[in-house]
Design a protein that fits this description.
The chain has 2 domains: 396 residues, Growth Hormone, Chain: A; 55 residues. Helix 11 runs parallel beside helix 14 and helix 11 runs antiparallel to helix 17. The chain has 17 helices and no strands. Helix content is 75%, strand content 0%. By secondary structure, the chain is mainly α. The longest helix has 38 residues. The protein starts with 21 loop residues before the first helix and ends in a 25-residue tail after the last helix.
């Protein structure tokens, strides 16, 4: 099979040394990606303050987080194809400006509706910005060694951004106001937009391409129903019509979408992208890892704040070692390990580390110490996440031509978002059921505060066991699907010759 090079993507990268501004471009891309990832969690620790300020109900509170994830996850594939059709630089800048506008509206919100709408707007422009950022990375770095370093930096940001979001959200809420969790994005956008406009050259659009409108409607509708159904299960129950009805609708729509993509003249998601064994394995790995990661960010935070009495800012600082080991794992994985061993061992080892860390966390109790019970597992799981992101991001975009860089990038992030929605629903259900059963089994009359604390810890432990199983399943799937050995080194297309679509590998 002729492996397609991303090297022919940019006119500025046509020289042997590549784009002389490529490292500055990488910094701009990482700033934008950091903003997108941390906004998935930056409001989590600010929600109580926002709720008190704006006066919305507990049932409305979840939509401040869900509105972002729902729109982001359902529109990623559509926006990924727009990146290829409109141009990477253009969509990157549009995404930045739109994200800034939505963030400014969110920070100035005077009602729940205004805040939720602004979060949905952030999700919309994040869905445009995220695949554009990764596609720019893929098409800017052409030398394999330099690309490994670039992916190491990007993977570190992508993997640790959610943890940094909790840290930043807790710090801003404690020291200033929950509104600064929104306004902080204006600083990120200002730096990235100026840098993108000055440093990035205009890149060619895909000639003769058309947007697959039926695929957009059916695919985006299916993704919306899937994310909404699982999000609803996390806050209500699996038996409500708004849960199983949307999940059934998503199954029907996504099956129809898959069938249509095999017949469409200009498919939204070309089958050659996902049928490649390595890329398909990377997308599935991100889905499984995304499901397990919510056990870390959700239940560890709950445990620290509700059981151990940590403040918002103290909880964020407690996660700093995980952020550090994530960055180390991502860089070592991309620069040292991926070129030698390929994605399979990194994915398997990373997920097994995550599973082991979750098993360690099952030893917590109502008065565990941070150093003895939390520090070790969160550092281990951070290193594991770094290895997973190092392999999945590079593998999920390997071998694609510039005309498919946007949709391949979106496919990776779609897997992570869908996995997060599934993990949130599954783990929340298991933890809640376990907590309720514990109280029913141990209560003698009205439950005491101590019993409720013990029941909550029991629920967290149950969630951690499920996370361990999810990560172990991911290690098995990654070990079976991903190929052994390093990824093939792409060969540059002849100068002036347009790229041909690659032939899918089974």
């Amino acid at each position: 099979m002729a492996v397609q090079s991303a090297a022919s993507a940019t006119g500025a990268a046509g020289t042997e040394g590549g784009n002389p501004r490529r490292w500055l471009i990488l910094a701009v891309i990482c700033i934008a990606q950091l903003m997108v990832v941390l906004d998935a969690t930056v409001m989590n620790l600010a929600l109580p303050s926002a709720q008190e300020d704006l006066g919305f109900s507990d049932s409305d509170r979840q939509w401040v987080v869900t509105a972002y994830l729902l729109v982001f996850g359902s529109l990623l594939l559509f926006c990924g194809r727009l990146v290829d059709l409109i141009g990477r630089k253009e969509t990157f800048l549009i995404g930045l400006v739109g994200f800034a506008g939505a963030s400014a509206i969110g920070g100035a919100s005077n009602s729940f509706g205004m805040l939720a709408a602004s979060r949905a707007g952030q999700g919309l422009f994040a869905a445009l910005l995220a695949p554009a950022a990764l596609a720019l990375l893929v098409t800017t770095f052409t030398d394999p060694k330099e690309r490994a370093k670039a992916f190491g930096a990007f993977s570190a940001v992508a993997a640790s951004g959610s943890g940094l979001g909790l840290i930043i959200g807790g710090s801003l809420t404690s020291s200033l106001s929950w509104r600064w969790c929104m306004y902080i994005n204006l600083l990120f956008v200002g730096i990235a937009a100026v840098g993108g406009a000055l440093l990035m050259a205009r890149q060619p659009k895909t000639p003769g391409a058309r947007l697959d409108l039926p695929g957009v409607v059916v695919g985006s509708g299916g993704m919306f129903c899937l994310v909404y159904g699982f999000s609803n299960a996390a806050t209500h129950s699996w038996g409500t019509p708004s849960t199983w009805g949307f999940l059934i609708a998503s199954a029907v729509l996504l099956i129809a979408f898959a069938g249509w993509q095999t017949r469409a003249k200009h498919p939204l998601l070309p089958p050659r992208i996902v049928l490649d064994r390595n890329r398909g394995g990377a997308y599935l790995t991100m889905l499984i890892a995304g499901a397990g990661m919510y056990g870390i960010f959700l239940f560890v935070i709950y445990y620290m704040q509700s059981t151990l009495g940590y403040s918002a800012i103290k909880s964020g600082v407690a996660l700093l070692p995980m952020v550090a080991t994530t960055a180390v794992g991502a860089n070592v994985g991309n620069i040292k390990l991926m070129p030698r061993f390929g994605p399979r061992p990194l994915v398997v080892v990373g997920l097994l580390l995550g599973s082991a860390a979750m098993v360690w966390l099952t030893g917590i109790d109502a008065d565990s110490g941070y150093a003895s019970a939390l520090l070790g597992p969160i550092m281990i799981v951070g290193g594991g996440m770094g290895l997973i992101f190092a392999s999945a991001l590079g593998t999920g975009t390997s071998g694609v031509g510039p005309h498919d860089a946007g949709i391949a990038s979106a496919s990776i992030q779609t897997g992570q978002q869908i996995g997060g929605a599934i993990g949130l629903a599954l783990l929340n259900t298991m933890a809640t059921s376990s907590t309720t059963d514990y109280i029913a089994d141990h209560a003698q009359g009205r439950p005491t505060a101590q019993l409720i604390h013990l029941a909550s810890v029991h629920g967290y432990v149950t969630a951690f066991w499920w996370c361990a199983g999810i990560f172990a399943l991911g290690a098995l799937v990654g070990g079976v699907l991903l190929r052994s050995g390093p990824l093939p080194v792409p060969a540059a297309a002849p100068a002036g010759k347009p790229s041909e679509p690659e032939t899918a590998r089974a």
